[in-house]
Amino acid sequence: MTSSFESHTHPARLSDAERDRVLAVLREGAAQGKLSHDTFLRRMDLALAARQVEQLRPLTADLEPESPWARRLFGTVGRVSAFSQRLRRAWQAEKLPKLLLPQPGPYPLRIGRDPLNGLRLSHDTVSRLHAELSMQGGLWILRDLGSTNGTTVNGRRVTTTAVVRDGDMVGFGQMSFRLATH
Known about the structure:
By secondary structure, the chain is of the alpha+beta class. The protein folds into two domains: 16-95, no CATH class; 98-180, Tumour Suppressor Smad4 (Sandwich). 39% of the residues lie in helices and 23% in strands. It has helices spanning 4-9, 16-31, 37-49, 53-60, 68-95, and strands at residues 98-100, 109-112, 119-120, 131-136, 139-144, 151-153, 156-158, 161-164, 169-172, 175-180. Strands 1-10-9-6-7 form a five-stranded mixed sheet, with no helix packed on it. A hairpin with a 2-residue loop joins strand 4 and strand 5 (139-144). Helix 2 runs parallel beside helix 4 (53-60). It starts with a helix and ends with a strand. The mean pLDDT is 87. InterPro entries: Cell_Proc_Reg/RNA_Proc (IPR050923), DUF1707_SHOCT-like (IPR012551), FHA_dom (IPR000253), SMAD_FHA_dom_sf (IPR008984). It holds the Pfam family DUF1707. This is FHA domain-containing protein. Keywords: Phosphoprotein.
């Protein structure tokens, strides 16, 4: 028989409901991208091996759901931030020099620092052979040619190709232009 003193010295045993709650929080954290795959697996193993509630708390401390107030606040901040980025791009777009789309031809327009390119851009952030622009199937295609400082369309980096049209903002390194047909 154990004394009442001894029963209080042992931590409470973990219930299945507590373990299931922690596993659900871990799954949700992984689904939201808050945990890498390896971290998710390691924490799942620790949750399944845990014997006391105190062993579970550190596994989800950084993943606990936000309060409805915090969700609204972060959502509002995200929307304001997205709006300010769109506003900055729109403000900047009006100041950009035009880059006239060429007449479609059998060869792409090469863009870069090399004097042999069809469009030579003399700027340190532009690669020697930076990008090319061509008409394919009735669409203008901008292709990055492995440039060091990147090619962008409307603020998004182009890793291979992107369809572009009149009015788009294109960037080669730190040089930016507004595409125009005339």
